[in-house]
């Protein structure tokens, strides 16, 4: 493969696979280097908001994604630990999120790539850039390799090798709080179609994700990263003792080996996502806490915007820097409030949710969800 017109994507997660689909559609010859021995997504569930669905429409996969999604009204069904509703979703006016098991969405997207596009067991070890393009170094079980490309995409996550190589002064990931995530056995969907429960120092989110399963997440305040427990499900039960009945039902329906515990980190702002013909996207560029539900959505936006701006990567920077910085900052602030141990902060949050008209809440959400891809009739540029 010659470097002109070729692109190498480092990382085969949702952002990397979406970038490969988008770049191929724009005429690029694409190779994805994925360090895992097989192409698969790990984790639990995720939600896709309307902004990311529009991006997927722009690359021809939106219809398939919608057909596979399960709607969730968790953003509108807000509860307190005792079970009281602060707000109920209004399907006539509220917009549902499209929810999936992460592996199901990844599988759907990866199926759009021709065989041979993804090289698994390929660990990127370095990258360099020049006026002519860029060079990626990677390692497999067979040896060390170099590949020249006209474009290199760093989609290799929060601990990105691409970022560490070309952005050596970038801020390190910063710990924010800790979270458990789980997926129930098939046959356990519950009638609320998703809820978000606020408690002092913790929140509990639940999304239906298809096959009559529910994805749930417990986020809690933590002073120190890296603390682990011998039985994650038991620890979640302990922390949610006394919470409303539906929480206990979901935990009862969750196999112990389907519970993950991860610390939640984000990244400080980078001055640019572009170095020559190398760009960053997704968590490699702007890892964020899950408190806006926009981690995967912003990676998808990045991928589609990149495919539209490969002839002018400065335009990619202009389109993505301001928007993603604002979303990272808002997610960080919301997360800080959501897991605050302060009873006063919790009371103020509850009071605000009780009093805020639904129209104001929708307007705040719309500032993120109303984004449209570059080149469409109502594209807002870097908004």
UniProtKB/TrEMBL annotation:
Keywords: FAD, Flavoprotein, Monooxygenase, Oxidoreductase. Residues 7-307 form the FAD-binding domain. It holds the Pfam family FAD_binding_3. InterPro entries: FAD-bd, FAD-dep_Monooxygenase_BioMet, FAD/NAD-bd_sf. Its cofactor is FAD. The keyword Oxidoreductase applies. It comes from the Bacteria. GO terms for molecular function: FAD binding; monooxygenase activity. This is 2-polyprenyl-6-methoxyphenol hydroxylase-like FAD-dependent oxidoreductase. The lineage of its organism: Bacteria, Bacillati, Actinomycetota, Actinomycetes, Pseudonocardiales.
